[in-house]
Structure formats: C-alpha cells, structure tokens
Amino acid sequence: MNYRQPFEGDYGISQGFGKTEWSANHTGLDYLTPAGTPVLASEQGTVIYAGWRDGGYGYCVFIQHPDGYITIYEHLLKDIPVKVGEQVRRSQVIGYSGSTGNSTGPHLHFEIRDASGKAVNPLTMLHSSIEPPTGAKPDQFGKPEQLKGADQLGANVEVICTLGAKGWYDDFSKYDIFPQGTDLTYTGKTKEHNGYTYCECYPQPKMFWVAVNDHIDQILDNRSE
User: Fold this and answer.
1) Is the whole model's pTM more than 0.85, yes or no?
2) Which DSSP state fits 21?
3) pLDDT tens digits, residue range 42-83?
4) Could you tell me the CATH superfamily of domain 13-124?
5) What are the start-end ranges of the E strands in the chain?
6) CB neighbour class for 39 (10 Å; exposed up to 12, middle 13-18, buried from 19)
7) First to last CA, the chain
C-alpha cells in the first residue's frame, strides 16, 4: 500500500513516535494542523470506527486497509462525513482536525497499526503525494482577514472564537472552555500574562480573559467585518 500523509500542506510535528518528552510510549504522530483542516484517508480501506471514543481519542476515525494495517485519526471535530462500513478512497476527506478528547489544542494524532494491533512509526510508511483531497468542502472555520493583535480591536466589538478557547477568570486560577464559533464581546481592556496578550471579553454577564492568539493559531477574530 502507498500510505500518504493524512492532510494537504506542510504542518510540523509537535510530538513524535515512541518515547518523547511528554510520553513514555507515544503511539503515533501529532501534527500541528489548525482546527478545520480536512483530514484525508491515508490509503483506501473500510471505515471500522467513526465517532466519539473514550480514552482520550475524542472524535476519531479508524480505517482497515487491504494489507491488514489500520490507520487512526484522532481529536477530530464532531462533523465526521464517513460512517462505519463505508469504503473510502485514498485522499478522501474523512473528518476535520480539532481538539476533542485528551488534547491541549488543535492537532491531529495519526497512528498506523499492523494486523496484530502493534503501533508502527508512520514515518517509516508514509509516501509523499500530490493528489488533491476528494470530497472537500469550503473551509468554514476561518476568514480571509484575521486579527494580528489586540490593537486591531475596538471597544465593544463583536468577536468570535475561531478555536476552542480558554476563558480565564480574573486571577487566572481557573477557566471555562468556549467552543469554536462562540460569539463574544470585547470590552477594550487587555492584560499581559505569561507572555500572552489577553482581551477582556464577555458572553454576558460574566467577564473572562481570552488570548488573542497562542503564538501559533489565531483565537479571536473580528466578527464585525
């Protein structure tokens, strides 16, 4: 089989295979795919799992391939366009990268397992591909022009969380999670904390501090334009 990377583009790996700084046995690769990135079937096969899975997976898809290997795609958004039993083509869109399950931010955890269930390093099996994705739909999670910093926001302007965002309480001791797409109103106040710029926002009547970005992805986007 000619396994391909499960997305178009060039995204870095935040955690490799095997023993890493964060895991004694990381069974796949973590790619820094932004939320909403189309996730592609690495090879043709049959969907044997699609949906929410406990154990840290979140929303995920498992594909059984003709050679006996299984590919696993984790932390997806809830909108999964394939179902169990479906035959999928190589490069077909099977989901969208998210941050569900045991995840600290948007990324794709990708695994390849052999017929015995043993995880193998995907980098030893992946081949480059110039095939475009099939079945993709227009990106619904971004806008052409995004904020670069808090200085581009005015007071009492409507903003939207483009990613699942942490809304910190005033002393930064705890937070709530705002799902992707949550509408907020920015008060015009900012605060620096641990090297990040936070905007004071409210979903009425409670005030929260929400980061403009996480130094990788934009979190707040201007809703008024």
Assistant:
1) no
2) S
3) 999 999 999 999 988 999 999 999 999 999 999 999 889 999
4) Glucose Permease (Domain IIA) (2.70.70.10)
5) 13-15, 29-31, 38-40, 45-53, 58-64, 70-76, 87-88, 93-96, 108-113, 119-120, 157-161, 165-168, 175-178, 183-193, 196-202, 208-211, 220-222
6) buried
7) 47
